[in-house]
Queue: 2 jobs
Job 1
Amino acid sequence: MQLINDDNEMKKTVNKANLKAALTLATTALLGSVQVAAATTSVEPTEDSWSFDSAFLYYSEANRVSAAEAVFNANKIYSDDSILNVKLTIDALTGASANGAVAQPKVQTFTRPSGKGDYDIKPGDTPLDDTFHDTRVQLNGQWTQALAQNYTGSAGGHISKEYDYLSLGVNGNIAYDFNKKNSIASFGLSHFQDTFTPEGGLPKPFASMTAAYHDDGDESSHDATRMGSDDDKTTTDIMVGFTQVINRNMVTQLNYSYSVVDGYLTDPFKILSLLDSNGIAQDYLYENRPDKRTKQSVFAQTKYHFDETILDVSYRYMWDDWEIDSHTVDTRFYIPLGNGSYLEPHLRFYQQAAAEFYQPFLMQGDALPEFASADYRIGEMTAYTVGLKYGMKLADGNDLSFRLEYYRQDPKSAGQKSPGVLANMEIYERIDAIIAQVSYSF
Amino acid sequence: MSKRRKIITTEREDGYCIEFDAMASPCEVIIETSDRALANFVGKAISTEVWRIEDKYSRYNRQSLCSQINQSQGNPLAIDDETFALLNFADTCYQLSDGVFDITSGVLRKVWTFDCSSNLPSPLAVANVMKNVGWHKVKYNQTQIILPADMEIDLGGIGKEYAVDRAILLITSLTQQPVLVNLGGDLATNSPRKNGQPWQVGVEHPGFVNKKKMVVSLFKGALATSGDAKRFLLKNDHRYSHILNAKTGWPIENAPRSVTVSAPQCIQAGILATLSQMQGEHAETFLEEQEIKHWAIR
C-alpha cells in the first residue's frame, strides 16, 4: 500500500499570502468531512425557525376617520443567512372624511359618490362624507440573500386589495458592502400597478355634482357626469442609499429617491365649492389633478448609541413637480429600564407647502383652471406627533410593546381671501388624532 | 472520571447556562430560550460531544486513540475519517507555518519545563529530543497512520477549538435559538442574541493575576486565545515563552503573552492565535497584514 507523505498530493504547498483562505479551506474540509455524531439519534427541536411579530394599531381622528390595523409579520432566517419575510396587513377604515367643500351658513346637501342617496351638513360644519368605510388586505413577500461576497440582493412582491382598489407591486434591491462592512451602498427599483374602481364610477373633471337619485330614480343625470368605471396608475421608484458606520456608537444613512407616478391621480370623491362673490356655494364641482407627478426626496438618518440609550434622528426633504415641498424631522430616544423593558419617546414634525393647483374653493366668474383640488391633504399644513412607547420582555422571552401617540394637523391658508360669509367660517379645520398600538413578537 | 462528568443547569435572565468540566477547563453553554427542556437537551448533547472528543484524542487518557497511536512503536494503526481529517488540518498548519507548528513537538516537554525559573535545558539535550520531532517523518492516509517509534503526536493545540466548532455544528441540527459555547476561553456562537445585541464575552488571560477580564463583543463566529502568562522561563533578563518553535526546539522569543483572535470558526481562530505568537515580535503585524481581528497583550 502506498502511504501518503509530504511528497505527494496530500501535502499541498501553501501560498502564505493566502493564509486566511488556506485556513478557511482546511477548516471547511475538517468540519465538513465528518457527520455530526449527535449523542442522541432522534432530536425533536421544540422551537421552530420562524420568528413572528404581530401588531394591532388603532388610529382615531376626533369626529372623523378611525382605522384599525392588524399586522402579522413572519421572518425566517436560513442557515446561509438568507431571509424570507412575509407580512400580512389588514386594515379597516370607518368614519367621515372631508369632501373638499367649504362650510356654509346654511345646511348643505351632498350627493354620495354612488349617486344614490345624499347627506346633509349642518351650518358652520366642515362637510364630511360619512360613507367612508373600507377594508384593505395587503400581502408583502421579500426574499433577501447574499449574491456574492459583499453583495446582498433582495426581491419582493406586493399585493393589496380594497373594495375599490387593487395594487400590485414588485421591487428589487442590491447592496454592496465594503470597508470591512462599515460602508454599504445600495440601489433599489420598485414598480407598482394600481387599478381604481370607485363606487359610482369616475367623475368627469369639474363636472357639476348632480342631485341624488333614489330607489327607482333616474340614473341618467348621474351617468352623464361620469367618464368610465375604472382607471389605473403606475408608480416607479428608484432609490440609491449609502450607510456608513462612523464609529462604535454611530451609524449614518443617506438616501435619495426619484419617483414617477403616472395615470389617474385625481380623487373621485373630492369636490370644490363654487362660490359667488358673497361666499355662498352655487355649485359643487368634481376636482381634477394632473395625470403625472414626479417626486424626489433626500433622507438622512443618524443613530447614536450612548452608553445605554440610543438616539435616532432623521430628516426628510421631499419635493415634486406639483410644488408640494415637505420637511419631516423624526426623533426617537430609546431608554432601557432593565429586565428587557424600555421606554421610547417619539417626536415628529412635518411641514408641507400646498400643491400648485390647490385651492380651497372656486369663484364664480373666474376662468376655470386646468387643475384644481380642495383636498386638505395637498394643502399647506404643519403636523406634530408626540408619542411614547413602552416595551417589555415577557417571562417566556417574547416581546410585548405598547405605543400611544397624539397627532395634530394644522392646515393653513395658502393666501386666498375668504369672500363674504366665509370670513366667519372655519375653512382650515384642525385635525386631532390618537394612535394606539400593541405589538407582540414571538 | 465519571464523577466529574455532570452538567449543571442554571437559569439566567435571558435563558439558561449549562456548565460542565472538560479538557481540563471549565466549560459553559449559554442558550437564549425560555424552554428549560430544550436547554437541558442541548447542554447534554454538547457536553457528550465534547467528552467524546476528549476521550478520543486526549494524550493523558491511556485508552484514547491518541495514546494508541503514540504507543504504536512504528506499526501501522487504523484511523477513522475524523482522525484523518484532523491530521490533514494539522498538516496544513505545519505547511503554513513552515514547520514551526508541529503536532509531533510535544516530546520537547521532556526538556522544557516552563515554571518561571531560569532552568534552561542544554542545547545538546534539546538536539537529542529534536530527533523525535518532525511531522514529515509521519506517514498517514485515509485508513492508517505510521508514527515512528519514540515519536508522539499531541492534538492539544487544536482539540479544544475543534470541539467548540463541533458543538456549533451539533447545535445547528438541534435548535435555532442563539447559543454560545465556551470551552475554557475558546468559544463560538451560532447566531447573534435575540435582542440583536452582540454577546458580551469576558476573555480570561490565563496567568495574569491582576488583569481584569477583557470584555469582547461577538455577534457571530468564534474567539480563541493563545498564551499563558504564568508559563515562561526567565534567564539573564531574557523571557522565554512557552511557545516552542518545532523547527529549532527552542522557545519563540518576544511573543506577546496572550493573543485573542476572532474568526468564523474556532479552530481557525485558535491556529491564527498560535501562528501569530510564532511570529514573535511581529505577532501583531502578522495579524494586521492578514486583516484579522485580534487583541494582543504583551
Job 2
Amino acid sequence: MKHVVVIGGGVAGIRCAIELAEMGIEVTIVEKQKHIGGKVRNWHKLFPSFTPAENVVEELIKRVQNCQNVQIRCCCEAENITPHQVTISGGETLNCDAVVVASGFTLFDARIKEEYGYGIYDNVITSADLEDMLNRRAVKLTNGASPRRIALLHCVGSRDEKVCQRHCSKVCCVTGVKQAMELKRLFPTADVFNFYMDIRMFGPGYEEMYREAQADYNIHFVRGRISEVSPTIDGKLQIKAEDTLTGRPLKMGVDLLVLLIGMKAGDSNKRFELSCHLRRQDSGFMQPKDSFLGNVESNMNGVFYAGTVTAPKTIGESLNEAVTAAHSVAEWIKHTA
Amino acid sequence: MTFFADFCIPFIVGAAYMALVVAWKYVTWLRHLPKSDLKLIAKGIFSLKSLSATWEVIRESLLHARIWRVNPRLGYMHTSLAFGWFLLIAIGWIETIAYLGFRWVPLQGHVFFKYFVPKNNIETHLPAFDFVMDLLLLFVLSGVAMAWYKRHNSKSVGMKRTTRHTRFDRIALTALWFIFPARLIAESITAALYGGGSFLTGGLGDVLDSIFSRTTLYSIYEASWWAYSCALGLFFVAMPFSRYMHIFTEIPLIFLRHYRLRPTAEESSYDRFEIEACSRCGICIDPCQLQSQLGNNEVQSVYFLRDRRYNMLQQKIVNDCLMCGRCEQVCPVGINLNTLRLNSRVTMRNTPNEGRYKYLKGIDTSQGEGRVGYFAGCMTLLTPKTLHSMQQIFDAAGEQVWWADKSGGVCCGRPMMLSGEVDAAQKMVEKNKELFRVHGITTLVTSCPICLRVFRENYDLEGIEVLHHSEYILRLIKKGRLNITHNAQLTFTYHDPCELGRGSNIYDEPRAVIETIGQLIEPEHNRKNAFCCGASVANTAISDAQQRTIAQKVGAELEATNAETVVTACPLCKKAINRGVERRVADLSEIVAENIKNINR
C-alpha cells in the first residue's frame, strides 16, 4: 500500500488525509499540537453564514477518525522533508511515497505593534482572543463590566511594511465585520467602530454582510488606521487616528479595542527552505510551482502543498485545495509507480 | 650667480598664481567671518592657544597622526608626501645656506638648486646633503608610488572604496604624480653630466651615463628641468581649485579651532575653512552604511563637501544622510560633517511661518507633580512598554514624577531641526521650556536619545539637570533606591543608539545597568564604531525598504552574539531592530522593570 505523510493536522491537512484515505492510500498526519483541528478549533463562528466552527472541525475529525488507514501523530513536528522520507521530532523517520505540507500559518504577534498596547494595557485584545471569549461566553472588560464603546482595528500585521508584512491577510476584513456584528448582538447599546484601510469583501455573501452591518446593526466604519493607543486615568483607552475620508485627525475613548491580527507565514517555513530546499516567497509563505496549474505542487517532485502554507486563504479555499492536493498526489504516485 | 633660466617660468608663474589665489581666499573668508568669531581670533591669537595650534599643525598637517590611527598604511602614504616634501624644502634651504652662506636666493634658486649649483661648480662638496636629499626623495617617491597604486587598487591600503575625483583634482593629481619622478630624472641627468648626487640620483645618473651618450644627455638636460618645472607649475595652478587646497586650509583651520571657532546651525564664512580643508581622502566612505549596506554612492560626506564647495549641491544629497556620525568619527581632519550638512539643510529647507504653530499656545497635557520630570517623546509613545516600565521604576524608587507627555505632548523639536526647519523647531523648544519652568522640575529624565540631545544642546535649561533614563536608572541603583536581581543566566547584547553613543557620549551607563541584571555580550561593532539602526529621523531620502535592509544587517550582527535579548536604549532603534531580528528586542527600562527585587516604598 502506498503511504503519504501529511504535515499539519489543521482543516486542510485533515481534509487531504480523508481524500487520500478514500482513494486507498495510507496516510500519517504529523501534528505539532496535542490535538488535530488547527486554529479553526479555537474559532467561534465562521463568516459569512455564522456557522459554528466546531460543526466544521468536529465533522472533519469524525470523518478522519473513521478512516482505517489514517494514523495521527500528535505532539511531533516534521524536522526534515524529502519526497520519500520525513524525519519527525525524536529522530524517527517515516518512509513514504509523497508528502503534503499543510502546516498552515502563524498568527501575527500583536505585541510587535507596540503602539497598540497589546500585552501592556487592559482591554486591548486580538481577534483570536475575542473568538476565545465568545466560545467561553465571557466577553467582558477586565473589571467585569460590559463594554459600551468598542473599536475594531483592521490590518494589524497585514499590509504593514513597518513590521515586514506587506501582504493582505484576506480574511480579516470580513472577520472584523462578523465580529462587530457578534459584539453588537451581545451589547446592542454599545457603539462599535471599525477602523480600516480598505474593506475587501471578495467572497460570496461578504458584501451583503458588510451592508447589513451598516444598515441593520448600525456599525460605524471609519477609514483610517489607528496610530497609537494610550490609557486614560478613568481606565479607558484613548485611540488616535485619522479619518482619511474627512481628512481630520480624531481622538476617541473606547472601552475595548479588538486588533484584527493577520496571517503571518508559518514559523516552520524558514526551516523548510533552509534544510529541505523548498522555495519560499518574499512574504515568507511557501512558493507553489505555478500559480495556475501547479498551485498545490512545490518546486520538488513528490512534495505538495495544501491550505495557508502558501498564502492566506479562507477555510473554504483551504478545504478545496486539500482535495486538489490529494488528487495530485494520487496521480503522481500512480505515475511514478 | 643669476638663479634664472627660461625653464623656471612655468614654476614662477604657477607659484605666484597660487600665492595670489590662496591669499585672496584667506582674506575673503576671514573678512566675512561674523564679528563674534573675529573677536575670538583677536582674543586667542597672542595666547598659548597659538602655540598649541602650531604643535597640532606639525602633528596633523605634516605627520598626519590621526590618519595613522585610523589606517597606518594610508598614514604612511600621507606622511611621506607631506612631511617628505616639507623636509625636502627645509633641508634644501639649509643646503643652500651651507653652500652659499646667508645671502638672498630667489625661490627658484632653492627649488632648482642642483641645476644652478652643480657639483663641478662648487669648491667644497658636501656629500652628506646629497645623501639626505636622496633619502627624502626616495621617501616621497614611495608615497607617490603608493598613491598611484591606491588609485588602481584601493584595497591595498585597506580602503574598500576611494574618492571619485573632479577635473581639477585629476589635473592636480597627475601633476603631483609627475613632480617627483621628473625631479628624480632631472637631478639624475645633472649628476650624470656634472657629478654629485648620492645613491639615488647619483646611482641613476651612472646608469643613464652608461646607457646614453653624453650628447644625448646634454640634449635632454634642459628638457628634463623644463618637465620638472612644468609639473610644479601645473600643480600650483590647479591646486587652489582642487582637493590639494586642503594643504593650505588645514593650517589656518587648526588655528581657528584653537581660538574656539565652530560651525553653527546657520552657514557662515567659517564653514569655508572646514569645507576646503577636506582632502577628499575618502576615509569617510567605508564607514557609511548607505554605501556599504545600500550601495548609495555620491552621498557621503566627501561628496557632500565637494558639491557644497563648488556650489553644485543638490537637496537629495543633503537629505540622504543618517547623521549617525560614523564618518565624523574617522575624519582625519576632524571636520564637523554633521553640523555642516545640517546648516546646508537649514539654508535649503527652513521655511519660517509665524502662524504655523499658533495652536501650541495654552497646550498643557502633562500629569502629576514632582521635582523629577519625565519626557517620553513621540517615539516612546509608540513603544509604550518603555513608558510603562519607567512608571514601574519610578514607583519602585518612590519618585514623585511630573509626566510631561504621557497622553501626548509637544515634540522636542529635534526631528524638525534635523530636517533643517530650525524656525519650527524653535517654537517647540520654547513651548517645552515654558512647561518645564511652569512645573518647576529640577531633573528631566527622557528615554529618547533624540530628545536628550536637543535638551542638552539647544534648550539651555539652567537649573534643570537633563538625564537619559540609562543615567537616571544607574543612579537609582547606585544610591540603593532600586534593587535589581542579578541572574548570570540571562544574556543580553546591546545596540548603541547613534544619538546616545556618538551623539551624547553615553556608552558606559547602559552597559553598567545591563550588567547588574545579567551578562552582556558585545556585538562586533560597538561603542564609537556601532552601526546605525537605519531608522534615523535625519534621513528623509531613503525608502522604507532601504531602512529595513539596514535594520536587518544590523540585526544579523546582534543575533550573531547569540544573546537571548537584544537591548537598546532608544525607542526608534528598538522599532527598527525589531524588524531585523527574530529574538526579543527590549528597551533598557523593560529589562530593569522586569528584574526589580523589592518595592522600596
